[in-house]
Amino acid sequence: MLQHIVLFCIDRFRGERSLAAIDHLLNGKKTAQTLQDSKWYDVSRLFGMVPIDRSRLFDVARALEADGFISQVDEHIYCTTASGKEKLRRFILPPYIDGWKYMNESSLFWKRLSLLIQTIANIIHRTSFEPIHRDEHIQSFVKRWLFQHTHIKTLARSLYEEMYELLSYVEEKDANIFVWRLTSHERIGWTNEQIAYAINEEDVAVLLSFQNVLHFMLEMTEKEAEKFPLLYSLRERKRSQLTSSAQKTWELLKEGYSLEQIAQLRGLRKGTIEDHIVEIATYIPTFVLTPFLEESKRKRIIQQARQLKTKKLRAIKELLPDVSYFEIRLALARWEREDV
Amino acid sequence: MFDILKERFGYDSFRIGQREIIEDVLNGQNCVAMLPTGGGKSLCYQLPGYILNGSVLIISPLVSLMEDQVQQLRNRGEKRVVALNRFLSYREKRDVLRELASYRFIYASPEILQSPLLIEALTRINISLFVVDEAHCISQWGHDFRPDFLKLGLLRQTLGNPPCLALTATATRQVIADIVTTLKLDDVKQHIYPLDRPNICLYVQYVQTVEEKITTLKHLVAILPKPGIVYVASRQWAETLSEVLREDHRVSYYHGGMDGEQRLLIQQQFVYDQLDVICCTNAFGMGIDKPNVRFVIHFHLPTQPEAYWQEVGRVGRDGNESIAILLYAPGDEQVGQTIIDMEFPTMEQIVYALNALRHGQKETGLTDVQQRLLLYWLEQMDKQEHIHTLAKQLYARMEQRKKEKLTKWIFMQRWVTGHTCRRRSLLSYFEQQPLKNERCCDQCGAHIHANATIERIQQIQLRPWHEELRSMFAIKVGNK
User: Fold this and answer.
1) Does ipTM surpass 0.90 in this model?
2) Locate the Helicase Helix-turn-helix domain: which residues (chain A) (predicted)?
3) Which CATH superfamily is domain B1-192 in?
4) How far A174 CA lies from chain B's nearest CA (Å)?
5) Domain termination residue (choose one: A234, A263, A278)
6) Distance from CA of A4 to the nearest CA of B (A)
């Protein structure tokens, strides 16, 4: 795979760029030159996709040269030979990879997704765990995200269905690799290198399979956000942006429909609309709570939460039997916001 | 005190020394404490954190170590903990500083404690305890000298001399004296506990060639109870040996060249017994508290007794019988020499670095450690001097340090080729005596026990993705 990738780049660079340019491209060096090159020579999909040592790149180039696929035109500059072109004819890049497009987003999305799945798997199996990502922001994102959803079993089911649907589109091998990288309640995720050894594949091929699935997920959740609302909501978005389904609810609310009417109109459960409203309260600062939560109740909830030093719904509910879980979540959603 | 021990930390009793140290800390006494690795040093300041009013400031040299500690506290439900290091963005730092007083535990790297903004914020809050972890980094006689640590004495003064607890696992008397002077600890109580770990058998296995080393390693890994750690001197060796061993066992490598995510995966696989053996450089092990590691094998002789003892200390923390084996072949004396040579810059490299610094370039071509040292010495010199004069002075100091390192290396060589009790001679370096040992070392007649009764941990198989996914989300088969 790595041979093909390097050959592919050499071919695209047409003897006008040295191996150093390929090194920068594959490692995703964010310099003006590299950014320009990757567009100009149409290799931007590989931007940052194969982070390897320069010495390894040189080894590959030497091997390609020895086999007659490339020939040197200048120091560290190569051209594809006829047999090199022939070799490339049967090669296609993994179809969904787009390092350029997703360079800022894919790693964040992966970290959130993998930590979320680890958390859900451990909650439903009642096992304790150590988060697979240390980054505090990732951890608090996942915590906040989970807070917006009530029933963990329903959530697990829906996330499973979204994942299942997306993974059935891609090659069996790619889907396997992606899932093996995930950490669950019973298995810590495997590294690229471990997977490569287990299935007797090149490490670069495994890495590209993984990225292929990841980028496919990003593409699909963008194109069909409504079909994959949970995965979509893991993507980086601005504060004001809502999941598309919550966005619709928000539009209807602004038109003056009540919670019950919206549920009926959209053919959704009342609980789902409540989830939306909590989400809206979290993200839309101008959203007014009072139609759903009286100010006096809100104050009592916050006071209770402060005293208990907890955001655990049940603990608050026990002391305030007259308020609903929905009301508690609403109060806390806004409190969280003001907290920040 | 016992209630907190039980409630917060889940322990029924203190380990050796902990209670005495904690009592002194609670009385506002300055302390230097040397506890063996895995002896529960962090409890000595974490428990007081729940009794004292104000914040505990912990200075720790390694970011990864800091992260491990913070995560452990968070796992115990502690929210009022923060780690300040160079990976924080400006905004995050600002937010943290604003609420600094609300944290019970503030971890900070010595680099970040150079920031005037942070120091200012620290002076405004109540620091109940000033903890210096890995305090041997203060001393240039220690095995991991960090010039930044020297400024901690001044920092402590700036903060109004809060009570101080300096912790280390390996220090000679000279290093402890350095710690006391540098931190300006008046009226200090020293808690020096035996470094010896009687449940670890020390064993040196001589072989003739590198090939024989590898076959011996394979044999040992096959017969010894697992899990275990194999320490090597380079990244390349970690990968090579992992490749050799993984045919028969669940083995992976770990070194500083891997990205953070992959490193954490390997570390957790090991902690959760999903790996039998880990082949690694000295990058692995800090902050990992795994009680049931049964063996550590050194494929190369470490260059310093402190480092060796620390790595040995990662086995048998549960108190059960464990073994540390060192493989030694003729020619190994070269390895250490090469490592030490590479640690120090040549005259040309120093001149190059000085030129780069003068022109405000960041790339000095030096390693982190070299650069830290160079900058520290440079501060004491007249920077207006001619570059070559400076370089000469710096080179002389480097040479001096190299000599000190070589002395340690020679100690290690004598130790490994000697014919006296391994334990006694190694502990003599720390001016300590061995405790009573039944299975002491190869020189005292101990043998390597094969343990066939240990059951093989069941391999976790990789299943097709849909099965994995169903299992993760607890979806019953047949539903979809």
Assistant:
1) no
2) 245-332
3) P-loop containing nucleotide triphosphate hydrolases (3.40.50.300)
4) 9
5) A234
6) 24
